[in-house]
Amino acid sequence: EVHLEESGGGLVQPGRSLRLSCVASGFSFHESGMHWVRQRPGKGLEWVSSINRHSDTIYYADSVKGRFTISRDNAKNSLYLQMNSLTTEDTALYYCAKERDFDFSMDVWGQGTSVTVSS
Amino acid sequence: DIVMTQSPDSLAVSLGERATINCKSSQSVLYTASRKSFLAWYQQKPGQPPKLLIYWASTRESGVPDRFSGSGSGTEFTLAIDNLQAEDVASYYCQQYYNPPYTFGQGTKLEIK
């Protein structure tokens, strides 16, 4: 069964850092592009970042550029999101998602990990 | 950035009737070489992650009931849900994946009338 499981969320003070992880199973992780998408409480979906299978094509939303870093370890079937200089605007449920083969839509999603930025 | 605008923000439809959600992009998401629009529709039920319904604007994802259909090309798109069922109550989002940032629409909340 194809599965994504996020972890690493929690309560953090403004200005601090947090690293999210996403472990994949049930598919060839090393062959799939991956994304992070977040959802602020009661709000819609916001695409955050993406990384291709070789880690040589990476994109970020303007709202996180320069503060967040996406990475992956194909040997560990794992995706990461390093989040620095966090603000209250980063409070959200963070989902990792797998790209569908041959396009960039997202066909598999994790359950999400919650990040709360508050003093 | 490509701005995605959905309409309406919410709608209430009777069971068995048809629901229609529109999505407009601020620029074309049609990839001319393949003649495919890089537009997806997702369904999100309360407390659940999003689920891919439609990709390339009109191709149903495997396992999605044929009551769900997508149409449109270029900048204007529609998600239609025929014979509305109680389990279709959810928020629906369009997303362009033509150019990063891969922006979503603001969402449409579908309820039963």
Instruction: Give the fraction of residues assigned to helices of chain A.
Output: under 10%
What is the N-to-C order of secondary-structure elements of chain A (H for helix, E for strand)?
Answer: EEEEEEEEEEE
What does the radius of gyration of chain B come to? 13 Å
Low-pLDDT runs of chain B = none
Order of helices and strands of chain B: EEEEEEEEEEEE
Overall average residue pLDDT of chain B: 97
Number of helices of chain A: 0
Number of helices in the DSSP assignment of chain B:
0
**How far from one another are the termini of chain A?**
40 Å
Radius of gyration of chain A: 13 Å
How large is the share of residues in beta strands of chain A? over 45%
- This entry's quaternary arrangement is heterodimer
Name the poorly predicted regions of chain A. Answer: none
Strand content of chain B: over 45%
* Overall outline of chain A: globular
Described by strand count, sense and barrel closure, the largest sheet of chain B is: 6 strands, mixed
* Principal-axes shape call of chain B: globular
Share in helix of chain B: under 10%
Helix/strand layout:
The complex is a heterodimer of chains A (119) and B (113).
Chain A: E1 3-7, E2 10-12, E3 18-25, E4 34-39, E5 45-51, E6 58-60, E7 68-73, E8 78-83, E9 92-99, E10 106-109, E11 113-117
Parallel strand pairs in A: 2-11
Antiparallel strand pairs in A: 1-3, 3-8, 4-5, 4-9, 5-6, 7-8, 9-10, 9-11
Chain B: E1 4-7, E2 10-13, E3 19-25, E4 30-31, E5 36-37, E6 39-44, E7 51-55, E8 59-60, E9 68-73, E10 76-81, E11 90-96, E12 108-112
Give a written overview of the molecule.
The complex is a heterodimer of chains A (119) and B (113). Chain A is mostly beta strands and 119 residues long. Chain A has strands spanning 3-7, 10-12, 18-25, 34-39, 45-51, 58-60, 68-73, 78-83, 92-99, 106-109, 113-117. Chain A is globular, with a radius of gyration of 13 Å. By secondary structure, chain B is mainly β. Chain B contains no helices and twelve strands. Chain B has strands at 4-7, 10-13, 19-25, 30-31, 36-37, 39-44, 51-55, 59-60, 68-73, 76-81, 90-96, 108-112. Chain B has a six-stranded mixed β-sheet, with no helix packed on it. Chain B has a four-stranded antiparallel β-sheet with strand order 1-3-10-9, with no helix packed on it. Chain B is globular, with a radius of gyration of 13 Å. The interface between A and B is medium-sized, with 23 and 25 residues.
